[in-house]
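Subject — a protein and its fold

Tokens — whole-number codes for backbone shape
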Amino acid sequence: MAEKRVVSTQQTSGLTTRDLILVAVLLAAGAVLKLTVSSFLTFAGMKPNFMIAMYCLAIILVRPNVFQAIIIGFLTGLISQIPHYPAGYTVEDVLRTAFRELANIQSKMRQLEEQMAAQPDKALLAEYDALSTRFQRTVPLNFSI
């Protein structure tokens, strides 16, 4: 007489390597599509967000628990924040663009300092004070140009 076969299953906790690779590939594809194709598919001022589509597809295919879905969503949000700059932009160009307003304020303050050194004036001092306050409100700690 033949023995009965017993099928055992193991409960896995967490995503498998296959699931992680699938999520990574989907999010990477969404990022590439967002940065390239979405600008051509603009309809009535709206651009499709392929990152959200790939996030939803990853959730449907992988079936993560709530915590894992939140992590996948957080990663999708981080990747979505990557800005799109024209070709040829360097890291220095990106940083200069980000801090352009602060650099302009600082430049104007230096001009006012030179003018006030040559001839003190209350109007110049008031303008300098307004620029100084605006600079201090928007400047990150330890900022220098």
The CA atoms of residues 35 and 83 lie 9 Å apart. The helical segments are 17-36, 50-62, 66-80, 91-98, 100-118, 122-138. The two ends are 86 Å apart (CA to CA).
